[in-house]
Design a protein that fits this description.
about 220 residues; mainly beta; Immunoglobulin-like; 2 domains; 6-stranded antiparallel sheet
Length: about 220
């Protein structure tokens, strides 16, 4: 699974035809080998004056550290821009950011919730992410793990089985998940909560600090990384 990171560019001069972002991720303390491989994306032209450009990048939730033979959820994000202007090409300096995470836990004391996600985004609601939350007592190998929900074809079966799986666990249910972003940034966040079984009680909403809400908007928590 992944999360989304919007990266923007504002033209400082006329004549810019296209802007690409080149990027790579490494474990902490390491640098990328650009000759070995990296990702590159064209920024979308949003217009305006000065002209603005944007690309929402799909980011990993962990990277593999070859030196220490392990996966790490905190890593370094390296990038530079390639600019095509007046028929010529030039590149910016290299930028590096530390990617860090924040864990959240939601306690359901009455067992009402069958499905819950962290609904969050970096800075504003430009590129929101749903991070499924799970009670750690649900077996890691269960087909009814929250992370499997979006790709599970028979949603009715999933709702039925997940309800009974959670019902067997003592209260409170402690749902957990994680958010990521560059160090120093602010995340906006709500909870997307639902009771999807039994069918006659089906209900879902987004929650902010002021209670039920539409998704996004000002009714949200702010987390400084």
């Amino acid at each position: 699974m992944s999360w989304y990171y919007p990266k923007g560019w504002t033209d400082q001069e006329d004549g810019v035809e296209q802007v690409l972002i080149h990027y790579a991720a490494t474990p902490p303390g390491q640098w990328p080998d650009w000759s070995w491989g990296h990702e590159a994306r064209v920024l979308q032209d949003l217009g305006g004056h000065p002209r603005r450009r944007l690309k929402v990048l799909r980011m990993p939730r962990a990277v593999w550290d070859l030196e220490n033979n392990r996966s790490t959820p905190e890593y370094r994000f390296h990038y530079f821009f390639e600019v095509f202007q007046h028929g010529h090409r030039w590149t910016t300096d290299l930028f590096t950011e530390d990617i860090v995470y924040r864990d959240l836990e939601y306690a359901d004391g009455d067992g009402w919730i069958t499905n819950i996600c962290i609904y969050w985004s970096i800075g504003d609601w430009t590129a929101p992410v749903y991070s499924p939350m799970e009670d750690p007592r649900v077996p890691a190998g269960s087909e009814f793990q929250a992370k499997n929900y979006y790709t599970y074809e028979d949603k009715d079966r999933f709702h039925h089985e997940k309800y009974h799986l959670l019902y067997a666990l003592p209260l409170p249910h402690q749902f957990r998940s994680r958010m990521w972003g560059p160090r120093g940034s602010t995340l906006v966040q709500q909870y997307h909560v639902g009771r999807m079984y039994p069918p006659e009680e089906r209900n879902e909403t987004w929650l902010g600090p002021d209670g039920p809400s539409a998704p996004g908007g000002g009714n949200c928590w702010h987390h400084h990384l």
